[in-house]
From TrEMBL, chains A, B, C:
Domain Glycine transporter: 9-83, 95-167
PANTHER family: INNER MEMBRANE PROTEIN, UPF0126 INNER MEMBRANE PROTEIN YADS-RELATED
Membrane topology of this protein: Multi-pass membrane protein
Subcellular location: Cell membrane
Listed transmembrane segments: 6-26, 33-51, 63-82, 94-114, 120-140, 152-170, 176-197
Family, similarity comment: Belongs to the UPF0126 family.
Protein's name in the database: Trimeric intracellular cation channel family protein
Pfam families: Gly_transporter
InterPro entries, sorted: Gly_transporter
Keywords for this protein: Cell membrane, Membrane, Transmembrane, Transmembrane helix
Length: 213, 213, 213
């Protein structure tokens, strides 16, 4: 298949992006070198492991295909030694997380569809793969996962996965679907951060300061 | 099988109850509309996904059978727009959580037994299915899961699952087992809350205020 | 196979050690008897369940082989009634956790290799099995998992798993590999605690007190 190389590059890029985001969180939390590598690696390969467990791929690809783990380890180690100062580190976390989110959502959906899953299942698998690594990272460092609190986070993953499935339904290749869907998700997520787009919060009665709609 | 419709109704009712409980927690934590929908949906379908991964059903039913996710989404959205005020919201959380717990524990055990698992495995699968959604909800919003701290929580799930298995062992249908076991679990859980039944805590030496037995 | 009995003893010993460590944490957190039993049992059998889900063993062995759960329950209950005072309880937690870590890492790797997995996969499976129970325990009680913060924690698991795989590659039995690898992991982990061995932390700019290398 002509897109095997594209697939591999997108997979490893997504793993690298998430591993960097996880390692940056580890550095900010002042974990030691091993803690940084563990949280970075889990974040990098975690979404794919969840995907493989959902689809019944045993053992997960990251346990048998060494480049996945190698990329996650190298990315995490690199962050330990070279990283921005404390005042800018959160900015980098968000950017690399967005790249991981976009790459995994579209690519995960395209892969599931190409493997014969229905469009609904493919979109769900892509979305779960994309948010899985970040949820693991945030639960490990004991914070509420960004998917519950960040601007258009799950929406961006859904858009990326849905666009990828739509492109393939219209006859596009899975490589094209992964690239276009992924780019759309990344742009949507980063734009929502830059513009501070927030969705409405619930009205709750009898609490001071609950006036927002 | 005559009980397929009963099974489907019980499944969707359990998903709806857990989704509502999760969305209520999201509202109380003041998540935005998407955060409320994500935590509600994960809580609604999470237990079943864990069950399917344990039993080797790939992909999980909620990824292929759209009514599951639809019910979870609609329930979560409804809670976002219509919910009790802050002073009563915890009360509703507990009630819907109890219904999810009861519906999933007995129904999960009955389904596993009907699928050929042993009674022990069926009881464990039912219990894990019942507490899985709530554990996911509580871990996501960063609190200690209720199964560790709430009144007779795991006991209620075990009773519901065990009663369902016992009814089937005595020749009852899986629909009857799900209904009776589920009702017993719900009544036990809500009674323990209403009466404030607590189990003994450990004695710990050398700590002020550790006098309770 | 001659080492079946050895395997069973090592498995149950690992489950018992992790269940005791989990129950001790539950006692320290002042959970009631059921909470202590739930967190102890999940910690005891959790790593093995993760391993089985990764390898595609459905349902997990602990759901079908009753001694696993029985040992976890008995160990947790025993801790509820007999445990050290608050000033020494953390010490016992660390020791039992180290035994669980060592027993599971080497034994998990040896089992995976004997089942036909590659050395890389076997080492990863052993490591994940060993740290899985502790991660579940720490996430449940809402603290950052020890694998991210404790002295040589993941390194000890990796050494145990790697040594077990190396011994089998050199012709040793899986029983010998489990014993030697497990002992090495336990000794390494406990020595690192006793000596206070810590790995370097990241340098972070513009933060007071960030001088350590």
């Amino acid at each position: 298949m002509v897109s095997t190389v594209v697939y591999e590059i997108l997979q490893l890029s997504g793993i690298l992006a998430f591993a960097i985001s996880g390692a940056l969180v580890g550095v900010r939390r002042r974990l030691d070198i091993l803690g940084v590598v563990v949280v970075g690696s889990f974040t990098g390969v975690g979404g794919g492991i969840v995907r493989d467990m959902l689809l019944g791929v045993h053992p997960p690809v990251s346990f048998t295909h060494w480049p996945n783990l190698a990329v996650a380890l190298v990315g995490s180690l690199a962050v330990f030694f070279v990283h921005p100062g404390i005042t800018r580190i959160r900015h980098f976390e968000v950017v690399f997380d967005a790249f991981g989110l976009g790459l995994f959502s579209a690519n995960g959906a395209a892969t599931a569809l190409a493997a014969g899953q229905t469009p609904l299942t493919a979109i769900l698998v892509g979305t779960i793969t994309a948010i899985g690594g970040g949820v693991i990272r945030d639960v490990l460092v004991n914070t509420v996962p960004g998917v519950l609190t960040r601007e258009l986070y799950a929406v961006s993953a859904l858009v990326g996965a849905g666009l990828a499935v739509a492109i393939m339904a219209l006859g596009g290749s899975d490589g094209l679907a992964s690239l276009v869907g992924g780019a759309a998700a990344i742009v949507l997520r980063l734009t929502s951060v830059a513009r501070g787009w927030h969705l409405p919060k619930p009205r709750i009665g009898r609490e001071p300061g609950s006036a927002e709609s």
